[in-house]
Amino acid sequence: MENRTEIGTLGEFGLIKRLATPFAQHQGWTKLGIGDDAALLEAANQLTVTSTELLIEGVHFDLSYTPLQHLGYKIVTLAVSDIAAMNAIPTQIMIGIGLSNRFSVEAVDELYAGIKTACEDYQIDLVGGDTTASPQGLIVSVTANGVVDSTQVVTRSNAKPNDVICVSGDFGGALMGLQSLEREKQVFLANPDMQPELDNKSYVVLRQLKPSARFDIIHELRELGVVPTSMIDSSDGLAAEILHLCEASGTGARIFEKNIPIDDETYLAATEFNLSPLTAALNGGEDYELVFTVSQSDFEKVEKIADVTAIGYMTDLKNEKVMVMKSDQIVNLTAPGFN
Amino acid sequence: MENRTEIGTLGEFGLIKRLATPFAQHQGWTKLGIGDDAALLEAANQLTVTSTELLIEGVHFDLSYTPLQHLGYKIVTLAVSDIAAMNAIPTQIMIGIGLSNRFSVEAVDELYAGIKTACEDYQIDLVGGDTTASPQGLIVSVTANGVVDSTQVVTRSNAKPNDVICVSGDFGGALMGLQSLEREKQVFLANPDMQPELDNKSYVVLRQLKPSARFDIIHELRELGVVPTSMIDSSDGLAAEILHLCEASGTGARIFEKNIPIDDETYLAATEFNLSPLTAALNGGEDYELVFTVSQSDFEKVEKIADVTAIGYMTDLKNEKVMVMKSDQIVNLTAPGFN
């Protein structure tokens, strides 16, 4: 009988590791391949940063409540967010789309209107792509490139004990936006005459439908002359991203519940949905904020950035990734799917 | 009532043009974006070439007769074939995969074994990717990068009247391989005890399942000091590719039936399937051979390359793209989906 191991037994990261390990490196100018947010390709003076994503209807997005224009914008955001996570400036994208016959030209126009707005906001060029038929639903592949000086590159792996763990923005909003939209969808399906009740959900819905990549933070860090010691963008939730940084850097981490930034609307929405706001922030995902570490000496400068919060520090206890609760209780940081 | 235009009314090229036109260019170093086989990004001394494709099970491949290892190899081939078409040397790829729960780890291992073999053959690095769930079947996105000196870049648009139209290899084989495999599939579905009859089909089946990108030709051209005036790889059939070169260069073309290279096995298979071998060659697609033009003065050198054939020449009659038949009759060159 043939061996058959279910992919679920490996998990996504296990699968990636398994797939990537056998590959030899042939090109001297490939400075960094699989294993970080993006790949690094050496140009003469600057490095080219490149990253790719594959998004599938029904897995990554639900068109029953996602306007195609917002989806177009979001596709670009999540691709360039990986470029930001390398401390690089985005430059180009390529987009492949697979379309079932459910989609009209006008629908594709809307999708690309959102992509165009994002290209203008991020000052990047669409330089290629592919369009094809899809037997079912919408499929989107997106590749983003960026550039960065070799002295400015930030990977996940250079955090040191005592470095301050910082985050941009706030967390959990995108999840609560998703929950709100899902609830309205169910209400609508049960009774199509019902009007959506999203009045007090405008912030969280926008966090879900139209997230931004934080190049404002990247530019502020440059103006301050600060290069983070490690950085990642939060697509899978704050806890998972901290665990990624710790694993890559070989450090432990200690963060503080009281410091985790959660917007009031996120807090109220979570309460309404009988969800812990803290869990939403730690495990929610899709916030596309930056999670990074800076040395103690750089922290004085970083503190001045309005939308950055220090939430804890790295430690030399590499087996201890913990959160200090408001009650002073200490709990392990965990993330679904992370082992 | 909302406007609704079916995508089919535009065709693939019309759709791409419609989607690409509104985008402004922001980056000075984007030397060439949408509209050729790949995008050109300027590095200091060399240009980076990048291209992306999206492949969907049931649209681009049929796993009932395509071994996953061959599929992995073919994915890389068709991505780097676009790099060859720019006269560039491939350097890196990124691959995204969407997998339904039908696929086991072993199955994905097989796919990546083929990708790995191709990476070794082409001496390129896998530098990134994405893996995700798919509700149905296998989805693959692939992005390839390459480098080329700015003096060596070959686009589609620089062919001149009287330039010689050359091709590598032979045409129509991949289509006849596909037809043979499809027939065996139907036989197997009707009676699973039947053994496949592919004995005299080994060449055409290999052309379909494991095509090669023609970097041997790229290297030979360099050794001879020849830079083609235009070039494209043949994914949609020889006729479509010539029409592409003519349209981009603003030329006409005259090719000769008697010069079109068709392998004996392709010829026999086409006859067996009641298909014209010439139609298979002109409209078959998936051969991944190079179609290029060189100046008359360079042709003396190119003639020496064993696997290159001159099939005609460019003309200044831009509305005339014709083929001279063995009977001396002159017919228009046409390609399905090309307008």
TrEMBL record, chains A, B:
Q: In which pathway does it act?
A: Cofactor biosynthesis; thiamine diphosphate biosynthesis; thiamine diphosphate from thiamine phosphate: step 1/1
Q: Which Pfam families match?
A: AIRS (PF00586), AIRS_C (PF02769)
Q: What is its EC number?
A: 2.7.4.16
Q: Which residues bind substrate?
A: H60, E286
Q: For binding Mg(2+) 4, which residues are annotated in this chain's numbering?
A: D37, S51, D82
List residues of the PurM-like N-terminal domain: 35-148
Which parts of the sequence belong to the PurM-like C-terminal domain?
161-324
InterPro entries hit by this protein: PurM-like_C_dom, PurM-like_C_sf, PurM-like_N, PurM-like_N_sf, ThiL-like
Q: Which UniProt keywords apply?
A: ATP-binding, Kinase, Magnesium, Metal-binding, Nucleotide-binding, Thiamine biosynthesis, Transferase
Which GO molecular function annotation, any one, does this entry have? Answer: thiamine-phosphate kinase activity
UniProt key word Transferase: yes
Reactions that this protein is recorded to catalyse: thiamine phosphate + ATP = thiamine diphosphate + ADP
**Any keyword Ligase?**
no
Where, in this chain's numbering, is ATP bound?
Y112, G129, D130, R156, S235
| Residues involved in Mg(2+) 3 binding | D37, D82, D233
Q: Where does Mg(2+) 1 bind?
A: T52, D130
Q: Which residues bind Mg(2+) 2?
A: D82
Residues bound to Mg(2+) 5 are D236
Family membership: Belongs to the thiamine-monophosphate kinase family.
State the remark under miscellaneous.
Reaction mechanism of ThiL seems to utilize a direct, inline transfer of the gamma-phosphate of ATP to TMP rather than a phosphorylated enzyme intermediate.
Question: What PANTHER family does the database record attribute to this sequence?
Answer: THIAMINE-MONOPHOSPHATE KINASE
General function of this protein: Catalyzes the ATP-dependent phosphorylation of thiamine-monophosphate (TMP) to form thiamine-pyrophosphate (TPP), the active form of vitamin B1.
The name on file for this protein is Thiamine-monophosphate kinase
